[in-house]
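Milestone 3.1: sequence recovery, worked example.
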């Protein structure tokens, strides 16, 4: 995975993955009603986001992209 840079806090490194929703809600739905539990699980898995480990915002971009290169130049100044 190439280096990523956060457009919010300018952290440079690897993003972390965050799964939306709640595991507790998912567990309750699976225990009581199977179809909503399945749909909720699919929604959670399909909506994972790569977020900045420092500021927790989903604003990470590749450092080798045009916008990423511009941010890297600003950090060096």
């Amino acid at each position: 995975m190439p280096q990523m840079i956060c457009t919010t806090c300018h952290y440079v490194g690897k993003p972390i993955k965050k799964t939306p929703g709640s595991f507790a809600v998912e567990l309750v739905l699976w225990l009581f009603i199977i179809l909503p539990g399945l749909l909720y699980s699919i929604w959670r898995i399909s909506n994972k986001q790569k977020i900045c480990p420092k500021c927790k915002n989903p604003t990470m971009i590749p450092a080798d992209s045009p916008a990423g290169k511009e941010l890297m130049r600003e950090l060096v100044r």
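The helical segments are 23-32, 34-46, 66-76. The chain has three helices and five strands.
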